[in-house]
Structures are given as C-alpha cells and as structure tokens.
C-alpha cells in the first residue's frame, strides 16, 4: 500500500507557543521532517544558517549549522536531542539560536509544533508522512561505532539519517557540518556541507553514494557508514566512528526507494529523466552538493541544495559559500526543485523545475544550466493519491494557526 504524503512551507510565528501546520490532505501524520535556511522571503540573504529536524511523535532530534558572511569566529554547529527544530544563523558573533521548537501533536490534517524561541517569518520547509502504507516508523539516535540498531519492533525497509558530525553538543566557533542521507537496502547516498572554523579556504560540499551517512570536510572523508542489512528489529551497518547520527527508520512494503544520478549537462532548457524509482512516485526529494566527484580531493566551495516536489508544486533551499572568500549566502523558493552552484549571493549555476509525474522516471528541466555533471541524490515516495490525475498529494502553501 502507498503512503500519504504532504509537504509545504510555513512561516515561523512571531510569538512563542503552539502552532498548527495544516496540510491539504486529510490524514494524520505518523512522522515529519523539517528543514530550511534562515530567510524570510525568496530573496538571497547574507550569512547562512541551515537546519533539519525529525520526529515520530515520541523522539525528536534537530541539527543546525551556520557561517558568517565576512566575519571571524564565523562557524558553528548545533544539535538538540529533545527538539524537532533548532536554527542558528551566522548573523552575530554568538550564533545564538534564532528558533527552538518541540513537537506538540499529530492532528487529523497536519501537526502542531510548540515554539519556545522565534524569529518571525523564517521559512520552514516540511514533509509529513502517514497512512496505512506507512506500517511503522521509528526515530532515534546512534553512534556510528555501534554498528547496529535493535529494538525497533519491526523490520525497516527504508532509512533516512542526518548528523552534525559530533558525539556531544558542540560549542561556538566549531567547524560546522551538516549531513543527510537515505538507504533502501540496495541504493544509498548521503550529502554533506562543511564550513571550516575561521578559514575561508575550508568550505566544501558533496553527495556520496558509498553510504547512508558520514562526515566530509577539508577534501577528505572523515568517516562513512554503509547499510549492511535491514534486520528483524533494526538495521546494521559498516563503517565506524564515535560521531552520532539521527535516523528515521520506515516499514513501507517497498513504497520508498533511493537513487543516485548526475546532472544533465546540455544547454538550457535541458530536460532530464531521473533514475527509475521502481514505481510511479507521488513525491520525491532531491539533494545536491554542487560537486562532480566524491569525495573531492580539495575543498573548492560549498553549494548545498535540497528540494521536494510532487510533479506540480515544488520547493527548495540553497546555500553557498565561495572558496577563499568569506561570502556565505542562502535562498529558498517555491518555484524550483533544485539548484547547484557555489557563487556569491546564492546565485545558481543551474536550476531545475519539474514536470507532471506520469511514470517511474520523473522528468526535471534545467532552465539554467552549466556543463558540470554534479552528483544528485534522490528519495522517491509512492503515495496513495494518483499522480496522473494531479491530485493534491501536497501543497506548497500551508496554514499556520496559533493557539
């Protein structure tokens, strides 16, 4: 059975307290992910602060990283094991938390989040999952050195993970890392963004198909964990390190899959069929590190992008830092699904839109393009709503109701 899925963007409220995010579909989520960059509209902004969070309603984890445009003491990473959202930005010397929130409830048409620290208007992207096709889901944490997770109570068939590359809550003026990856038992990939402490030469990003999570920076791979097996009550991996990662393990009956590809290189407009999902997806996510190799032998700038679409609505976040320059920037919009590049001002070298999903190889089109075959990770979700009839699998706008 397929999965109910909804995605969109909501604004951080202007006051603390519980806020409800409502989807266009009438289903009660079983889990959701949050992510974004610290901007309040679709204009590029200096400094960057990106964030990710996840919850299954029982456990919640959040990471954030920041870099300052033109500053010193200019990087930080942050983690919280009891919140679904923390966001720091490189707009001051302390990199203080601009947003903090915990999960409040799953609702009949969405979910509620309890904000304890707010920065009004910051755009927060979300993906909510539920339905009878999502048999089981569990969110948790593990040290990469553990090499296995047990006790889930079900055998997963898909895995999402993220990490800030640390085994304890980092302090200010740390190298900043952000990693996100997926695995389906056959294909796996993870993307990484890195900004070195007080060093404009130490900026990098990538997508790697050698594991589902790891850590990369300064032109080499610190560690990488590769899925060995999905087990009766958990999962096992190879590749050890003392760093911690956070996971969302799913039992879907095969309604999620992963793929790894490279960007089309033809002149714009350049249509590109994505790899075969194994089913007709209703929603898919794309991640790019704006790199053509992994791991790159030398750092040459950061260009991290993450987008989601149902073949109609689309949204993405994109942040950059120029190599050998203290120029950190960020942008988001709901007019594109993915960008690549490392230029000042978060100006993309290539940017993609989507076409209606009619088969198992969705098509994106690079409306601006360059000749780089940048590596891209794909996460496919088979949804309960038929994609060929353009049913509202997701909406890019969502209501936010303060209580």
Could you characterize the architecture of this molecule?
Helices cover 0% and strands 53% of the residues. It has no helices and 32 strands. The chain has strands spanning 4-11, 17-22, 29-37, 45-46, 48-55, 60-67, 75-80, 85-88, 97-107, 110-117, 123-130, 136-143, 148-149, 158-166, 176-183, 188-195, 203-208, 213-217, 220-231, 234-238, 244-251, 256-262, 270-273, 283-288, 302-309, 314-321, 328-333, 338-340, 350-354, 363-368, 375-381, 399-402. A hairpin with an 8-residue loop joins β29 and β30 (363-368).
Keywords:
seven-stranded antiparallel sheet, 403 residues, mainly beta, disordered C terminus
What's the SSE blueprint?
Layout: E1 4-11, E2 17-22, E3 29-37, E4 45-46, E5 48-55, E6 60-67, E7 75-80, E8 85-88, E9 97-107, E10 110-117, E11 123-130, E12 136-143, E13 148-149, E14 158-166, E15 176-183, E16 188-195, E17 203-208, E18 213-217, E19 220-231, E20 234-238, E21 244-251, E22 256-262, E23 270-273, E24 283-288, E25 302-309, E26 314-321, E27 328-333, E28 338-340, E29 350-354, E30 363-368, E31 375-381, E32 399-402
Antiparallel strand pairs: 1-11, 2-10, 2-32, 3-5, 3-11, 4-27, 5-6, 6-7, 8-9, 9-10, 12-21, 13-20, 14-15, 14-21, 15-16, 16-17, 18-19, 19-20, 22-31, 23-30, 24-25, 24-31, 25-26, 26-27, 28-29, 29-30
Alpha carbon gap, first and last residue? 35 Å
Radius of gyration: 19 Å
Q: Care to count the β-strands?
A: 32
Number of domains: 1
Spatial strand sequence of the major β-sheet: 4-27-26-25-24-31-22
